[in-house]
Amino acid sequence: MAAVLVAADADSTSPEETSHRVKSQGEIEAAVSEGMARFMQTFMGRGPKSIHSHLIADLMVIRVQGVLTAAEQHLFVMLEPQKGRDLFKGLRTQLVESSRARLDAVIEAACEVPALSMHHDISTVTGEEIFVFRLAESPVMRASRKK
Fold it and tell me: Strands (DSSP E) along the chain, which ranges?
């Protein structure tokens, strides 16, 4: 059973809490999505068509869709499938690994917990990219409000 840390009373305003507001799970996931979209726009030169982040205990899973440029899509048509795929995945892996510190900063800013490891893959068929970050611990978050 996964342990989820929840702030006791998110509405109290003790001196410690006035400078730091505990986020809900949805706010953490939204902050990760916004940070990743900003990173992709500035570092990769193109933002995604859609991005979804999911916090599961100490894992942050991010699914990004619509990340392939027209040139990258054309590469798969021009080259034999295995060669184009390997060339593209190698390049994308190098880009992601070289920007690891920036990605970790996005995750830590949103979750307020450092990332211990990152796993990444991209599909040349669907153009979907997946990032999985293992966090040092489950983030502290307030309980979501029932409607």
Answer: 50-56, 59-65, 115-122, 129-135
